[in-house]
Design brief:
Length: 375
């Protein structure tokens, strides 16, 4: 089965991890600091604070702005549940804004959702395509709100000459195994705000500051969300190869763009000329004529060896959200969910793999093209 995304680990990565395993420090050492400095430099931010997951990084970012009970964030329902779950964990409410047909939050709809309880705007760079961050920042500035960008899909993405990670008040990255670079599990928050960086470091390590000798002081509530030294060593080794990984992902994506251009039943998501995408995912959007057959198409592609996936079931459709917030429906979100199908696109693939994927997709789509939907 060719997965929709996967890690690429080489001998350099293994050697980097083994070196740490043979050392005296498996946690709280120099590798984490080196990884943080390298990420900050890569994205053009002043500070980076590594966490053991992007989920804990999100929680840390929300805590850093003082998000609390009865506060609200405005975010997208087309994301992994952690984006909104971590706000709920602090007692806040996620308010879902509809999306555009590229999967990103519709910035034109955000302002109408702002209330006196709104504290932050939390866009997600879906599949690696940058959100309209300047328009979002403009709304945030007008209403004195924070912008926390969930860029779990988007390490290496950018707009013009500026990389994602240097626009928002805080930006979250994920280093999960299926992301362009991995630490196994892991995440980070980057920011240009020194106070946020200090709060984040306290939050990830029990709220404790060390003083002299054995003396320390717990000054705030925190957790153990630290990244290990060997995870950081893996991340640092992977980061050196990120641009090469992204080049491969984009070569495959461009090939797909050509193969599927003008197809009557599937469309793709365009990356604007001034944008760079990490291409964490390659989403196909199925015509409404195929919506009724989507489960069959999904199964047939898997039978033929393609590890396809759907990103994402709208967060508000989950049982927990229905029970807590009631039924919700956003028209573009619903349509996007019915349409979206992610096909393999990652740095472990060759163009020959991509040809096989494209040929298989086109063959399966043709087989189902006559079925249609009756509404």
């Amino acid at each position: 089965m060719l997965p929709y995304s996967t890690q690429l680990i080489d001998e350099d990565d293994i050697a980097a991890v083994v070196e740490v395993l043979k050392s005296s420090h498996l946690t709280q050492g120099a590798k984490v600091e080196a990884f943080e400095e390298a990420i900050a430099e890569y994205v053009g931010a002043r500070f980076c604070v590594a966490f053991n997951s992007a989920t804990s990084a999100l929680l840390g970012a929300y805590a850093a702005i003082g998000l609390k009970e009865n506060d609200e964030i405005i975010t997208t329902p087309i994301s992994f549940v952690a984006t909104s779950n971590m706000a709920i964990a602090l007692g806040a409410k996620p308010v879902f804004c509809d999306v555009k047909m590229d999967g990103n939050i519709d910035e034109s709809l955000i302002e109408a959702l702002i209330t006196p309880q709104t504290r932050a705007l939390v866009p997600v760079d879906f599949a690696g395509k940058p959100v309209a961050i300047e328009a979002i920042k403009k709304v945030a500035k007008k209403h004195n709100l924070f912008v926390i960008e969930d860029s779990s899909h988007a390490l290496g993405s950018g707009i013009g000459n500026q990389k994602i990670g240097s626009f928002a008040d805080m930006t979250i990255f994920s280093f999960h195994a299926i992301k362009p670079i991995t630490t196994g599990e892991g995440g980070a928050v980057v920011t240009n705000d020194e106070e946020f960086a200090k709060k984040l470091k306290l939050f990830r390590s029990h709220g404790i500051i060390k003083k002299q000798l054995w003396n320390s002081d717990m000054v705030s509530l925190g957790h153990n969300f630290r990244l290990t030294e060997f995870a950081a060593a893996l991340g640092l080794s992977q980061l050196h190869k990120l641009d090469r990984f992204l080049q491969t992902r984009n070569e495959i994506a461009r090939y797909y763009d050509e193969c599927f251009a003008g197809h009557k039943l599937i469309t793709t998501i365009a990356i604007d000329s001034d944008e760079q995408s990490a291409r964490h995912l390659y989403p196909l959007l199925l015509s409404p004529a195929l919506h009724c057959s989507k489960e069959d198409i999904f199964s047939e592609l898997q039978i033929r060896g393609l590890g396809v996936q759907v990103h994402y079931k709208p967060i508000y459709q989950n049982s927990f959200y229905k029970e807590r917030f009631g039924e919700q429906r956003l028209p573009n979100t619903e349509h996007f969910y019915k349409s979206e199908l992610s096909i393999p696109c990652h740095q472990k693939m060759t163009l020959e793999d991509a040809r096989m994927v494209a040929d298989t997709v086109l063959d399966v789509m043709e087989a189902y093209s006559h079925r249609g939907c009756s509404f």
